[in-house]
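Protein modeling request. Please complete all fields; requests missing the sequence field cannot be processed.
Requester role: graduate student
Desired output: 3D structure, token encoding
Chains: 1
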Amino acid sequence: MLAGAIAALAVFISATAVRDTIARRARNEARVARDTILSEDDIARGTVHKALALDGVHQSVSPAELRRRVDNLSSGTYMNDILAEQDSTLYRWPDRLGDALRVYVEPTSELATWSPQYPQIAREVFDEWSEAGFPLRFTFILDSTDADISIRWIDRFPPAEGQRIGVTERTQGSDYLIARARVDVALHDSVGRPLAPVVIGGIIRHEVGHALGLNHSSDPSSVMYREAATLVIGPSDRATLRTLYLVPAGSLKN
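Delivered output (254 residues):
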């Protein structure tokens, strides 16, 4: 009898732990870096919510040391904007000595108004971010299951989501390093109006910035400016990207 009761208790505890783990993962997966919307002036703009997959967080340097390094390098950047939106935390991809980040761009689509030029636009956007100072290499692959970053085309977002036209879902690990990112790009606004190729390019440029670890900027000349998707990656984008990858990922909160 006693052995049976102990076994039943062990099963109960195990089942409870599994349910708690699943619930925690569900909460984490619900918090994603996301959202480019189209304003009333047909300008792409975005909002970011962090995606955390953190379980016993840890980082390579102390918050005070990380703050010191950021302060020394933040001139000409919008690092403070990022820290304000991300609760004084920096996320980035881990350093890779040899391996490139694997990028999957959906090569075809049956969606109305999709154009074969869109995958090429996406590949060129990654080239632009490389030239802007992203220190890691990209390689384009044909199998999405092995991708670090994926870009996919969707017809539109539901009307309930307003004028959203792009979403980035980004997962970080317990060391604040980005593990994977997915970008969904809409070809139409929520009422079905087709988006021009120049707008598609703006969405991708902005969302890939999120996928690389950037957040919104208060600098109107920045491609990460909250209120507009500019056509050019600006000087503050370059400076911020370089700084982000010169310092470790982690929290600046003591």
